[in-house]
Amino acid sequence: MKLSPRDANAYFKKPDRDKTGLLIFGSDAMRVALKRQEFLKALLGPQAEEEMRLTRIPAAELRREPAMLLDAIKAIGFFPGPRAAFVEDANDNIAKILLDTLKDWQQGDAQIVVTGGDLKKTSKVRKAFEAHPNAYAAAIYDNPPDRGEIERMLADAKLTPDNDAMASLVDLARAIDPGDFRQTLEKLSLYKLNDSSPLGADDIAACAPTSTEADVDDILHVVAEARARDIGPVMSKLQAQGVTAVTLTIMATRHFRTLYRIAANPGAPVYGVRDRDRVTRQSNSWGAAKLETALGVLTDTDLTLRSAGQNAPAIALVERAFIRLAMLGAQKNR
């Protein structure tokens, strides 16, 4: 059976121990791994590996020894509690093994937990789990965690944010990898140890990672400071380094949201940047009205990049948007 993203998030938190198994797949290996960790912890508890209630089987090994999975789900452990056999990096090369094991599964056997990459709709593995009456398949998309998911992660970390901190975390989740975001929450949990006050934006500023690349910071400052002539050379350097158009759009959106937050709420803390005074000056130069327009330009650019009918070079679209923003920033506020 298929799980929608909303249903999947709920199921990962509270799995059914009587199910045959679960397939988690997606193009982002880190996101898939984090969801798998969350599910196995909820299903088996934190001591499953120490108590030998979890068997890990790489797909390559299973292909060489097809009986491994069936042996794993039938084995009786020394410790009481639910059991699982986890198959990593599955693809159609082991589809027959997985299908045969699903057929042989009986109540009381260990659950079959499988992770895979971007499995197509025609994948035999995906079809098997989606069609199985007692198993689930969950696709993990590249979307950043939404507010509800962030709230659940904060609750797990025993962190209570104020409104400014929550807004900062939502923006941060859009700008960095999911693994980095989870590590940031762990760092915040340690940072707030024995501190009962709500999590604030200042706390996030102290723990959040800075921009991933100094060169990406360079283009953001060039655009925000209306230096249109410098955009071309910096973009050429970034393109040579392999920086993608989507990454540039995400980082620019994050930067201009930070500027907008400062403009809309003077005195608000600035997090995740190398030079707080510099971005404050940029925000003051732009003003809230022009920053709203800038965010609209970036949103339109992002939608164009994701459009199925888009044929123009992606990096050229972003460069054109950056030039437009720089010209907008050069206009005097009225």
TrEMBL record:
InterPro entries linked: DNA_pol3_clamp-load_cplx_C, DNA_polIII_delta, P-loop_NTPase
GO biological process, alphabetically ordered: DNA-templated DNA replication
EC number(s) per entry: 2.7.7.7
Protein name: DNA-directed DNA polymerase
Signal peptide: none
Catalytic reaction(s) noted: DNA(n) + a 2'-deoxyribonucleoside 5'-triphosphate = DNA(n+1) + diphosphate
The keyword Transferase is assigned to this record: yes
